[in-house]
Amino acid sequence: MPLLCSFGLCSFEEAATMPTVFVTVDTALNRLAAITPADSVLVHAAAGGVGLAAMQVIAAAGATAVTTAGSPAKRALLRNLGSVHVSSSRDTGFVTELTEVGGASVALNTLTSSGMVAGTLAALQWGGSFVEISKRDIWSAARVAQGEQPCCLTNMCVQHVRSFCAPDPKRHV
């Protein structure tokens, strides 16, 4: 039985999912987006498993976390965990809030509604990286290119990892 379960912090089933979540986040942020201390990383629904793992990976990289969550209690949790900017994930108000503070250089997206994806793209800094880890309603490179500002789009699925951008020598090793 995992050590965490021994202390009653989680069930065996919950502990069993942790490696998958951290591998997903590590691949998305460290390997695909190649985050650095200069990055501000937008993480939607950050109070969930992927989001909490992302907060730890972002902190380990020295980058800045900007997050969204659905409830006031979840947003308070994210503030307590070090997110410098926390918005609601229930509407697109985060776009105005983030663009007023310079936007995010990387977005780890898990939201699927068209409005939220478009809002996330609008909140990215010019040339930022949009890493999609959802499995439905994934936007194509052509659809993203219809937006107002260019970004590096990476769709990451369990079955495959496919990038739609040329590596930026400043972001990729």
Helix and strand topology:
Layout lengths: L2 H4 L5 H21 L7 E4 L5 H13 L2 E6 L2 H9 L4 E4 L4 H8 L3 E6 L4 H10 E9 L8 H5 L6 E5 L4 E3 L10
Helix pairs in contact: 2-3, 5-6
What does this 3D model show about the protein?
The protein has a 7-stranded mixed sheet with strand order 3-2-1-4-5-6-7, sandwiched between helices. Mean pLDDT is 80; it is low at 157-166. Strand 2, helix 4 and strand 3 (85-88) form a beta-alpha-beta unit. 40% of the residues lie in helices and 21% in strands. The protein is globular, with a radius of gyration of 16 Å. It is an alpha/beta fold and 173 residues long. It has one domain: NAD(P)-binding Rossmann-like Domain (Rossmann fold), CATH 3.40.50.720.
The first-level CATH class is given as Alpha Beta
CATH architecture designation:
3-Layer(aba) Sandwich
Low-confidence stretches: 157-166
Strand arrangement in the largest pleated sheet: 3-2-1-4-5-6-7
Summed up, the domain count is 1
Q: How large a portion of the residues is in β-strands, by DSSP E?
A: 15-25%
**Integer average pLDDT:** 80
Q: What order do the SSEs take from the amino end to the carboxyl end, as H and E?
A: HHEHEHEHEHEHEE
Helix proportion: 40-55%
